[in-house]
Write a structure and sequence with these properties.
260 residues; alpha/beta; 7 strands; binds nicotinamide-adenine-dinucleotide
Length: 260
Protein backbone atom coordinates (compact mmCIF):
# COMPACT_ATOMS: atom_id res chain seq x y z
CA UNK A 1 0.00 0.00 0.00
CA UNK A 2 1.41 3.40 -0.90
CA UNK A 3 0.52 6.20 1.50
CA UNK A 4 1.17 9.90 0.88
CA UNK A 5 4.17 11.44 2.63
CA UNK A 6 2.16 13.87 4.75
CA UNK A 7 -1.28 13.17 6.21
CA UNK A 8 -3.98 14.59 3.93
CA UNK A 9 -1.48 15.45 1.20
CA UNK A 10 -3.12 15.85 -2.23
CA UNK A 11 -0.11 16.86 -4.33
CA UNK A 12 -0.31 15.16 -7.73
CA UNK A 13 -4.11 14.97 -7.58
CA UNK A 14 -6.49 16.58 -10.05
CA UNK A 15 -10.07 16.84 -8.80
CA UNK A 16 -13.17 17.56 -10.84
CA UNK A 17 -15.75 19.22 -8.58
CA UNK A 18 -19.23 19.63 -10.03
CA UNK A 19 -21.22 22.57 -8.72
CA UNK A 20 -17.86 23.95 -7.64
CA UNK A 21 -18.62 27.63 -8.18
CA UNK A 22 -20.05 28.29 -4.72
CA UNK A 23 -21.13 26.81 -1.39
CA UNK A 24 -19.91 23.34 -0.44
CA UNK A 25 -18.25 22.71 -3.83
CA UNK A 26 -16.21 25.91 -3.61
CA UNK A 27 -15.17 25.10 -0.03
CA UNK A 28 -13.98 21.67 -1.23
CA UNK A 29 -12.03 23.30 -4.06
CA UNK A 30 -10.34 25.71 -1.62
CA UNK A 31 -9.45 22.87 0.74
CA UNK A 32 -8.09 20.65 -2.05
CA UNK A 33 -5.94 23.50 -3.39
CA UNK A 34 -4.55 24.07 0.10
CA UNK A 35 -3.59 20.39 0.24
CA UNK A 36 -1.71 20.61 -3.07
CA UNK A 37 -4.24 19.38 -5.66
CA UNK A 38 -5.33 21.10 -8.86
CA UNK A 39 -9.07 21.46 -9.46
CA UNK A 40 -11.51 21.64 -12.36
CA UNK A 41 -14.75 23.35 -11.42
CA UNK A 42 -17.73 22.25 -13.53
CA UNK A 43 -20.72 24.48 -12.97
CA UNK A 44 -23.74 25.70 -14.91
CA UNK A 45 -23.20 29.32 -13.83
CA UNK A 46 -20.53 31.21 -15.82
CA UNK A 47 -20.69 34.31 -13.60
CA UNK A 48 -20.29 32.33 -10.36
CA UNK A 49 -17.39 30.42 -11.91
CA UNK A 50 -15.64 33.72 -12.69
CA UNK A 51 -16.10 34.84 -9.08
CA UNK A 52 -14.83 31.49 -7.80
CA UNK A 53 -11.69 31.54 -9.95
CA UNK A 54 -10.90 35.08 -8.73
CA UNK A 55 -11.54 34.13 -5.11
CA UNK A 56 -9.39 30.99 -5.29
CA UNK A 57 -6.46 32.93 -6.78
CA UNK A 58 -4.44 29.85 -7.74
CA UNK A 59 -3.45 30.40 -11.37
CA UNK A 60 -2.40 27.28 -13.26
CA UNK A 61 -4.11 25.00 -10.75
CA UNK A 62 -7.78 25.93 -11.38
CA UNK A 63 -9.83 25.27 -14.49
CA UNK A 64 -13.42 26.51 -14.73
CA UNK A 65 -15.83 25.00 -17.25
CA UNK A 66 -19.45 25.87 -17.86
CA UNK A 67 -21.13 22.47 -17.79
CA UNK A 68 -24.70 21.40 -17.23
CA UNK A 69 -24.36 17.97 -15.61
CA UNK A 70 -27.74 16.96 -17.08
CA UNK A 71 -26.25 17.11 -20.57
CA UNK A 72 -24.40 13.95 -21.63
CA UNK A 73 -22.48 15.64 -24.49
CA UNK A 74 -21.38 18.59 -22.33
CA UNK A 75 -20.15 16.24 -19.62
CA UNK A 76 -18.14 14.11 -22.08
CA UNK A 77 -16.61 17.23 -23.64
CA UNK A 78 -15.74 18.70 -20.23
CA UNK A 79 -13.98 15.46 -19.28
CA UNK A 80 -11.76 15.76 -22.35
CA UNK A 81 -11.03 19.43 -21.67
CA UNK A 82 -10.15 18.80 -18.02
CA UNK A 83 -7.81 15.94 -18.93
CA UNK A 84 -6.14 18.09 -21.57
CA UNK A 85 -5.71 21.08 -19.24
CA UNK A 86 -4.64 19.54 -15.93
CA UNK A 87 -3.91 15.87 -16.64
CA UNK A 88 -5.51 12.66 -15.40
CA UNK A 89 -8.47 13.15 -13.09
CA UNK A 90 -7.85 11.27 -9.84
CA UNK A 91 -10.81 12.58 -7.83
CA UNK A 92 -14.40 13.21 -8.91
CA UNK A 93 -16.65 15.06 -6.48
CA UNK A 94 -20.28 14.86 -7.56
CA UNK A 95 -21.58 17.89 -5.70
CA UNK A 96 -23.86 19.78 -8.14
CA UNK A 97 -27.35 19.77 -6.71
CA UNK A 98 -30.61 21.62 -6.37
CA UNK A 99 -33.30 21.44 -3.70
CA UNK A 100 -36.29 21.91 -5.98
CA UNK A 101 -39.61 23.35 -4.80
CA UNK A 102 -40.60 22.79 -1.17
CA UNK A 103 -44.11 21.41 -1.68
CA UNK A 104 -46.06 18.23 -1.01
CA UNK A 105 -45.20 15.28 -3.24
CA UNK A 106 -48.52 15.41 -5.09
CA UNK A 107 -48.07 19.13 -5.74
CA UNK A 108 -44.64 18.59 -7.33
CA UNK A 109 -44.86 19.02 -11.09
CA UNK A 110 -43.44 16.24 -13.28
CA UNK A 111 -41.05 18.82 -14.76
CA UNK A 112 -39.70 19.77 -11.31
CA UNK A 113 -39.49 16.12 -10.26
CA UNK A 114 -37.48 15.20 -13.38
CA UNK A 115 -35.22 18.25 -13.10
CA UNK A 116 -34.17 17.47 -9.52
CA UNK A 117 -33.52 13.80 -10.38
CA UNK A 118 -31.64 14.77 -13.57
CA UNK A 119 -29.26 17.15 -11.78
CA UNK A 120 -28.76 15.39 -8.44
CA UNK A 121 -28.70 11.77 -9.58
CA UNK A 122 -28.41 11.36 -13.37
CA UNK A 123 -25.79 14.14 -13.44
CA UNK A 124 -23.62 12.18 -11.00
CA UNK A 125 -24.03 9.02 -13.09
CA UNK A 126 -23.05 10.91 -16.29
CA UNK A 127 -19.92 12.30 -14.61
CA UNK A 128 -18.93 8.82 -13.37
CA UNK A 129 -19.53 7.47 -16.88
CA UNK A 130 -17.25 10.14 -18.33
CA UNK A 131 -14.41 9.93 -15.81
CA UNK A 132 -14.24 6.48 -14.21
CA UNK A 133 -12.85 4.72 -17.33
CA UNK A 134 -9.82 7.03 -17.42
CA UNK A 135 -9.36 6.60 -13.64
CA UNK A 136 -9.01 2.87 -14.27
CA UNK A 137 -6.05 3.60 -16.52
CA UNK A 138 -4.06 5.48 -13.83
CA UNK A 139 -1.79 3.43 -11.57
CA UNK A 140 -1.25 6.06 -8.85
CA UNK A 141 -2.06 8.07 -6.85
CA UNK A 142 -5.20 6.91 -5.08
CA UNK A 143 -8.35 7.50 -7.09
CA UNK A 144 -11.66 8.51 -5.58
CA UNK A 145 -15.30 9.25 -6.31
CA UNK A 146 -17.01 11.31 -3.61
CA UNK A 147 -20.73 11.92 -3.84
CA UNK A 148 -22.34 14.74 -1.87
CA UNK A 149 -25.67 13.23 -0.87
CA UNK A 150 -27.72 14.44 2.12
CA UNK A 151 -29.24 13.23 5.35
CA UNK A 152 -32.53 13.78 3.45
CA UNK A 153 -31.63 10.70 1.42
CA UNK A 154 -31.64 8.60 4.58
CA UNK A 155 -34.63 10.12 6.34
CA UNK A 156 -36.89 11.45 3.56
CA UNK A 157 -37.78 15.09 4.25
CA UNK A 158 -41.44 16.08 4.02
CA UNK A 159 -42.09 18.61 1.23
CA UNK A 160 -38.86 17.64 -0.56
CA UNK A 161 -39.64 14.18 -1.98
CA UNK A 162 -37.78 14.64 -5.26
CA UNK A 163 -34.71 15.92 -3.43
CA UNK A 164 -34.84 13.13 -0.83
CA UNK A 165 -35.37 10.46 -3.51
CA UNK A 166 -32.49 11.81 -5.59
CA UNK A 167 -30.16 11.69 -2.58
CA UNK A 168 -31.30 8.17 -1.63
CA UNK A 169 -30.54 7.22 -5.23
CA UNK A 170 -27.10 8.81 -4.94
CA UNK A 171 -26.40 6.71 -1.84
CA UNK A 172 -27.34 3.55 -3.78
CA UNK A 173 -25.24 4.65 -6.78
CA UNK A 174 -22.29 5.06 -4.38
CA UNK A 175 -22.70 1.51 -3.09
CA UNK A 176 -23.12 -0.11 -6.53
CA UNK A 177 -20.14 1.67 -8.09
CA UNK A 178 -17.99 0.99 -5.01
CA UNK A 179 -18.55 -2.75 -5.34
CA UNK A 180 -17.70 -2.66 -9.05
CA UNK A 181 -14.43 -0.82 -8.33
CA UNK A 182 -13.47 -2.37 -4.98
CA UNK A 183 -10.40 -4.19 -6.27
CA UNK A 184 -9.48 -1.57 -8.89
CA UNK A 185 -8.09 1.02 -6.47
CA UNK A 186 -10.95 3.48 -6.96
CA UNK A 187 -12.76 4.11 -3.68
CA UNK A 188 -16.33 5.44 -3.89
CA UNK A 189 -17.94 7.06 -0.86
CA UNK A 190 -20.64 9.57 -0.08
CA UNK A 191 -21.19 12.30 2.48
CA UNK A 192 -24.61 13.00 3.98
CA UNK A 193 -24.59 16.49 5.51
CA UNK A 194 -27.42 18.06 7.46
CA UNK A 195 -28.39 21.63 6.55
CA UNK A 196 -25.67 24.12 5.60
CA UNK A 197 -26.60 27.78 5.24
CA UNK A 198 -25.84 28.15 1.52
CA UNK A 199 -27.57 29.35 -1.63
CA UNK A 200 -29.34 25.99 -1.89
CA UNK A 201 -32.09 27.65 0.20
CA UNK A 202 -32.17 30.76 -1.99
CA UNK A 203 -35.55 29.86 -3.46
CA UNK A 204 -37.28 29.71 -0.05
CA UNK A 205 -39.41 32.85 0.51
CA UNK A 206 -38.03 35.00 3.39
CA UNK A 207 -41.30 34.67 5.33
CA UNK A 208 -40.83 30.87 5.44
CA UNK A 209 -37.09 30.92 6.03
CA UNK A 210 -37.19 31.62 9.80
CA UNK A 211 -39.66 28.81 10.39
CA UNK A 212 -37.65 26.45 8.18
CA UNK A 213 -34.45 27.22 10.12
CA UNK A 214 -36.22 26.39 13.40
CA UNK A 215 -37.45 23.07 11.98
CA UNK A 216 -34.06 22.19 10.49
CA UNK A 217 -32.05 23.05 13.59
CA UNK A 218 -34.49 21.38 16.00
CA UNK A 219 -33.51 18.07 14.40
CA UNK A 220 -29.79 18.64 14.99
CA UNK A 221 -28.65 17.78 18.54
CA UNK A 222 -25.68 20.16 18.19
CA UNK A 223 -28.22 22.86 17.27
CA UNK A 224 -26.49 24.56 14.36
CA UNK A 225 -25.89 24.45 10.60
CA UNK A 226 -22.90 22.47 9.36
CA UNK A 227 -20.14 24.77 8.06
CA UNK A 228 -19.12 24.25 4.43
CA UNK A 229 -15.49 23.95 5.60
CA UNK A 230 -16.47 21.03 7.84
CA UNK A 231 -17.86 19.16 4.82
CA UNK A 232 -14.73 20.10 2.87
CA UNK A 233 -12.49 18.66 5.59
CA UNK A 234 -14.31 15.34 5.33
CA UNK A 235 -14.07 15.43 1.52
CA UNK A 236 -10.33 16.08 1.84
CA UNK A 237 -9.82 13.04 4.05
CA UNK A 238 -11.89 10.89 1.66
CA UNK A 239 -9.74 12.04 -1.27
CA UNK A 240 -6.45 11.38 0.51
CA UNK A 241 -4.47 8.18 0.90
CA UNK A 242 -5.36 8.28 4.61
CA UNK A 243 -8.73 6.87 3.55
CA UNK A 244 -7.66 3.44 2.38
CA UNK A 245 -10.21 0.84 3.54
CA UNK A 246 -13.57 2.60 3.21
CA UNK A 247 -15.64 2.22 0.08
CA UNK A 248 -19.39 2.20 -0.53
CA UNK A 249 -19.68 4.01 2.79
CA UNK A 250 -21.98 6.81 3.89
CA UNK A 251 -20.19 9.43 6.00
CA UNK A 252 -22.48 11.27 8.37
CA UNK A 253 -21.88 14.97 9.17
CA UNK A 254 -25.07 16.03 10.93
CA UNK A 255 -24.16 17.19 14.44
CA UNK A 256 -25.71 14.05 15.89
CA UNK A 257 -28.91 14.04 13.80
CA UNK A 258 -28.30 10.71 12.07
CA UNK A 259 -28.62 7.69 14.29
CA UNK A 260 -27.62 5.13 11.64
N1 LIG B 1 -26.77 23.27 1.85
C1 LIG B 1 -27.31 22.21 2.46
O1 LIG B 1 -28.06 22.34 3.44
C2 LIG B 1 -26.98 20.83 1.99
C3 LIG B 1 -27.18 19.75 2.87
C4 LIG B 1 -26.91 18.46 2.42
C5 LIG B 1 -26.44 18.27 1.14
N2 LIG B 1 -26.24 19.32 0.31
C6 LIG B 1 -25.77 19.08 -1.06
O2 LIG B 1 -24.52 19.69 -1.24
C7 LIG B 1 -24.37 20.02 -2.63
C8 LIG B 1 -23.93 21.47 -2.75
O3 LIG B 1 -24.94 22.28 -2.20
P1 LIG B 1 -24.72 23.78 -1.71
O4 LIG B 1 -25.42 23.91 -0.44
O5 LIG B 1 -23.31 24.17 -1.80
O6 LIG B 1 -25.61 24.53 -2.81
P2 LIG B 1 -25.32 25.78 -3.76
O7 LIG B 1 -26.63 26.11 -4.36
O8 LIG B 1 -24.58 26.82 -3.01
O9 LIG B 1 -24.33 25.16 -4.86
C9 LIG B 1 -24.76 24.26 -5.84
C10 LIG B 1 -23.97 24.50 -7.11
O10 LIG B 1 -24.43 23.57 -8.11
C11 LIG B 1 -24.52 24.26 -9.34
N3 LIG B 1 -25.46 23.58 -10.23
C12 LIG B 1 -26.81 23.55 -10.14
N4 LIG B 1 -27.33 22.89 -11.19
C13 LIG B 1 -26.28 22.48 -11.94
C14 LIG B 1 -26.19 21.76 -13.16
N5 LIG B 1 -27.28 21.34 -13.80
N6 LIG B 1 -24.96 21.50 -13.66
C15 LIG B 1 -23.85 21.95 -13.02
N7 LIG B 1 -23.89 22.66 -11.88
C16 LIG B 1 -25.08 22.91 -11.35
C17 LIG B 1 -24.98 25.66 -8.96
O11 LIG B 1 -24.73 26.61 -9.99
C18 LIG B 1 -24.18 25.91 -7.70
O12 LIG B 1 -22.93 26.52 -7.97
C19 LIG B 1 -25.73 19.74 -3.29
O13 LIG B 1 -25.68 18.49 -3.93
C20 LIG B 1 -26.67 19.69 -2.11
O14 LIG B 1 -27.80 18.90 -2.37
C21 LIG B 1 -26.48 20.61 0.70
Amino acid sequence: MSLAAAPGDLHGHHAVITGGAQGIGLAIARRYLRSGASVSLWDVSASKLDEAVNALAAPGRVQALVVDVRDEAQVMQAAQRSLAALGAVTVLVNNAGVLGPTVNTWETTPADWRNVLEINLTGAYLCCRALVPQMLGIATPARRVINIASVAGKEGNAMNAAYSASKAGLIALTKSLAKELATAGVLVNCITPSAADTAVFAGIPPEHREQLDKILLARVPMGRFVEVDEVAAMAAWLASADCSFSTGAVFDITGGRSVY
